[in-house]
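Dear Dr. L.,

I hope this message finds you well. Following up on our conversation about the binding site, I have prepared a predicted three-dimensional model of the protein together with FE2/S2 (inorganic) cluster. For your records, I am including the exact sequence and ligand specification that went into the calculation, followed by the structure tokens. Please feel free to forward this to your student if that is useful.
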Amino acid sequence: MTQTLQLKINGSDLRLDLDDPRATLLDVLRERLGLTGTKKGCDRGQCGACTVLIDGRRVNACLALALSHDGAQITTIEGLARGEDLHPVQAAFIADDGFQCGFCTPGQIMSAVALIAEAEAGLDPERIREGMSGNLCRCAAYAGITEAVLDATRALALEEERAA
Amino acid sequence: MADVINTQGHVRLGSNAGQGLTRRDGVLKVTGAATYAADNRPEGLLHAVTATATIARGRVTHLDVAAAEAHPGVVKLYTPDNVPPLAVSPDEKIHPFVWRMEALQSDRVRYAGQPIALVLAETLEAATEAARLLAPRYEAETPHVTLDDAEPFETTTTAFGRPADHSSGDIGKARATAARHVVAEVETVAQYHNAMEPHAIVARWTGDRLEIDTPNQAIGLARQTFAAFLGIEPAQILIRSPFLGGGFGSKAILYGGQLLAVLAARDTGRPVKLVLRRDQMYGPVGHRAPTRQRLRLDLDEDGRIAALQHDTLTMTSSFDHFLEGASNASHSLYATAALQTTHRGLRADIGTPGPMRAPGEAPGSAALEVAMDLAAQAAGLDPLAFRLRNHAETDPSNGMAFSSKALRECYAQAADLFGWADRPAEPRRMRQGQLLKGWGMGSAQFPCPMFTAAAHATLRADGSAVVETSAADMGQGAWTALAQIAADGLGLDIDRVEFRSGHSDLPDAGVAGGSGHTATAGTALFNAGADVVRRLVDLATGDPASPLFGAGNSGVTARGGRLHRNDDGRSEAYEDILARAGLDMLRGEGTGAREGQPTRAMFSHGAVFAEVLVDPDLGQIRVSRLVGAFAAGRIINPRLARSQLLGGMVWGIGFALQEEALHDARTGRFTNNDLAGYHIPVNADAPMIEALTVHEDDPFVNALGIKGVGEIGVTGTVGAIGNAVWHATGLRSQRFPIHPESLILSGESL
Ligand code: FES
Ligand code: FES
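The resulting structure of the complex is given below.
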């Protein structure tokens, strides 16, 4: 039985006729909508590769049943850049070499965006490491990831200051 | 950056190589636009899911095929009863780097997690559910999955065909002269690569042409292997592998699921995608086998090693041969008058082990460095002083001189940054608040193999170039570092060089493994560029209209897209030389391989210093600081090399304190085959960590002087952490990983 789902993904409204109620948000994004930037590392909520923002909060999309998010606003890695310009977190990941194979990277970046917005970690590396520990990186680009979060936090604060 | 490699013609190395460029694939990777195999969704795609065995040894007696087939959306189901045949049995050993595979050739189960059926369905959800509905029944036999109960077998070789045993010097005589000896017994456990990207394949046939998207570390060999098993020509197959989401050895070797996906795609006439679940990566795609190692070090009065003996017991599967060569780690690191190493093998009901980042070296180094610490203690020497005293000037296993060895500088720089000089000799002397603090160290070493690679370079009429080789970027940065080398080979700025890579229609770049890919594929690319330059030089110096006419004797250097006379500095742009010669392109070819039998011992070296904090009540161990310094020849890209080294060191943390795959001994099944149960380091486990590189010119290792950085970071680190735990607590764990309970339950008080 087909169910209809209304989602706002990366700013665009989308009506989706879902063929299978078992589908996770991750599999809907990847296999039905072609938004394959979000990765599947474990499908069990254990690695963070599938992290997206749902209504601004970081969520493991593999643990989210698509149907239970009717009406949600979803941001994926594809929706982060501002036109041609990279989001400051994306730019910082490149500058600080916060990845190697790049497979965990979309999840790391989405998680970092949310972590900075949560404003819990600030510029404390220890708390950033803790706050990013739901996102595994087997290449272990952790030093670069922590640096990138620090740099992006500063860059975003500066942007905010300028805007104010 | 003025190095000139004369052997390669008129080309300068160092305009691009040596720069810490950011990754050329960086934007793709941070925007989600980099396409990994599982991201492909060709029209008409079928999703495949394998059912896997839940016993480790026996037979499948029943599968509820009817129930699975009746599930809505299921298109086809394969079991040993109806799987299409392969041209060659998957049990054939067609190449030393092709493992025997499971492609539903029989109802036999030889390890837990083995594929026993394949379901194809219109959606992933339907295929997943149908695979579950198969509800297999078995005739189970008693499995053997541990070092304690597996079957011994005779072997003369370890991994990669190396001899199982080695002896040099007279160990009996050396022991007779020794003043004392120490014995270290160290056990290491089964570890799984767990690349973040699960193994995946998308296979599609168009007529008799096969397209495959799959992450692979050796595309050329993979293509040959697919062709052999399918009974078709390699030229009929295109493999794309532009990005690997981590490999670490597990994607160097094909597994049965890949063959099944290809067969299923041919049989159904539709594209098929198979992505392993995380738990399915425990079994068919390799792992690091457990080891039980014993080292005996005999010392003379002055604390010099007179004899070194290293014995390893490890295991492989019941049907193929890969023995972790741990004892080989003792061959070439420390001076000794006599050396004896052995390996003994067991057969168990497990998937075949394979190369996993620093295979042999990682567990071998872990045990060796623990033994070295014990020996330092026995000799009454500081661990660093003891290692310096036993510094090998030549390779003790064969007497060869080292091609280069800046290990002393590594010790000095890392020790200095770490603050090693302040270390109290006795354990349990340092505290941080309530926590016990300890410092330990280890030496790092990794060989510098070269494989074979080929490359093309084509200079275009506008003076830009395209270079081609089927390299594999699994995170080490091939897209960037190899392009830097290629640009230097051509004497061009990197922005003028287009690098085509990552698919099998290009010249074969060999295997990305053994830390030898940059050296091997890089040499091929450099030589291809140099070949182009040589042709250009011939054109220009022979052309009276060129300012380079007659410059042949004094020499010409290629740089920045121009040829420069060495005598008066006059120069000419590539595009002008081509234009006058009426050429719209100029093509060069190159290969990379080690020439002849090595006459020197070739290794990267390093030193790692670790600080740990141990909670005396809970036994919790945290690495709080890690400093490494590494001498690895020419560093092509310092930014990326540092990341490789740091990554390796964090693997060392996982090895020392966390990673352990557990089997239920009764059923042989895994009890922790997921990322919640099998712990790999998370960000909070990777503390203040630094990796320095020490300058090293190596004129012997290869013409580019490259040694490799991918694996060495794991070596040294494990032992350093183990030794730091001893220094903090006074307890020597005889096993890695060191878990809190091993300290708490040791019977000693913390
Ligand atoms: S794929 Fe969702 S947490 Fe791993
Ligand atoms: S960059 Fe490879 S897993 Fe994180």
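In brief: Chain A has two domains: 3-79, 88-163.

With kind regards,
A. P.
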